[in-house]
Amino acid sequence: MNLARRAAQDRERERLRTGGADASGANTVTVKKNVVKIGRPGYKITKIRDPNTKQQGLLFQLEFSEIGPDVVPRYRFMSAFEQKVDLPHDRRFQYLLVAAEPYETCGFKIEAKEIDQRRFFDYYDKDTKEYFLQVLFKK
C-alpha cells in the first residue's frame, strides 16, 4: 500500500517538475496575459418594469469602443460575501461584474433580490461595440 502511494506521489512530482504535461502530452499550464488596462467603459443604467408581469429590473448598457474584434464581454454575479472591496459585507446587496479586455472590470452594486433567469438577457453588438444586460427581479 505504501509503495503504491509513494509511486503516485513520485508521478505527481515528476509531472509538476516537467511543466505540467499530462499523459496526452498536452500542456496544462495556463499563461496569464499581460494586458494594459485602459480604464472603465462608458455605461448607462436604466430602471425598467415589464408592463405585463409588473416585474422590476435594470437595463445596463456598456460601451466598449476600444475592444478587440474577437473579444466578447463577460458578466458574473457575485454575492456580498465573495467580494473584498466594499467592507463590511452587506447581505442586502449583490454585485454584477462586467469584464472585457483591455478595459478594467466594472462592478455594479444591486439589490440582492432573486433574479428571474428566464427573463435575463445579454447581447453584444459587434458593430456598435455596445453590450446590453437586462436583469429582471422575481416578485
Automatic annotation (TrEMBL):
Start-end of Basic and acidic residues biased regions: 7-17
Protein name: SF3A2 domain-containing protein
SMART domains: CactinC_cactus
Limits of the SF3A2 domain: 38-131
Entry's Gene Ontology BP terms: spliceosomal complex assembly
UniProt-annotated stretches for the region Disordered: 1-25
Keywords for this protein: Metal-binding, Nucleus, Zinc, Zinc-finger
Entry keyword Metal-binding: yes
Gene Ontology cellular-component terms listed: catalytic step 2 spliceosome; U2 snRNP; U2-type prespliceosome
GO molecular function terms attached to this record: zinc ion binding
Pfam families, A to Z: SF3A2
